[in-house]
Design goal:
By secondary structure, the chain is mainly beta. The chain has 1 helix and 10 strands, in the order E-E-E-E-H-E-E-E-E-E-E.
Amino acid sequence: MTIDNLTVKDSSVHGMGLFSNVDHKEGQIITKISGELINGDECVRREDEGNVYIFYKDEDEYIDAANHSQLRYLNHSCNYNCDIDEDENGNLILFASQSIKSGEELTIDYGYDDIYDYCSCNNCENKTELCSADRI
């Protein structure tokens, strides 16, 4: 599955990244998060095998986007420009948390502690000893 308003290319954040082909206003929906719906036990099993492309949906539902040709390239940044939420139909959506210009990389805060071990953002808001922005 591909989303027309998004493209994957080299990222200054990490490896490959997901970029917008159009401008987005703050609050605007960018895309629906799609993938395989799995439960908590399966999520843990897949994460233990190294799958890092799983999105939390609710108490015991997760969306595995590992096979999605674009969403799997949504990188973490402490200075993120997108958020994930649920719409009125129960779908997970990616939306702009601030204005985004065409050509900008789309990023989210992954929101789990271990990510800050690998965080490479320039102005980390999580000023902890784990954040690489604070390391010398």
